[in-house]
Specification:
The protein is 63% helix and 0% strand. With 149 residues, it is mainly alpha-helical.
Amino acid sequence: MPATKTKKTLGILAIAGVEPYKVKKGEEYMSEPQMAHFTTILDSWCNQLRHEVDRTVDHMKDEASNFPDPVDRATQEEEFSLELRARDRERRLIKKITKTLKKIEEDDFGYCDSCGIEIGIRRLEARPTADLCIDCKTLAEIKEKQIIG
């Protein structure tokens, strides 16, 4: 049986090199240490995404060839197209991360944009750019499914 290669991806906390936040007894939600924790996570995530963008640009410069065989050329163009789509998704994610970092600066981070309640530390560690609590997000997804059909 041939060995299969699997690409292992790191979680957001691992990318940032931080452990899950441990709330201290009596600590207020979105205290300075918590804000610093999420700033570290978001900065590291953004830097990692920017590094991927740079790597893609370098890769495309190095690998760009004008193959005489149309099949080889088509294969390369398809690979580049897939890479560019992935980078475009990452570019949008970088914008979201930047927006979230701005919310931290403005002391508006960690609360649901819809109902105003706390989003929660664990949810934010799983998805630091979350701007809706789990209940509002669930309702939004249900409404979206109803509209789309």
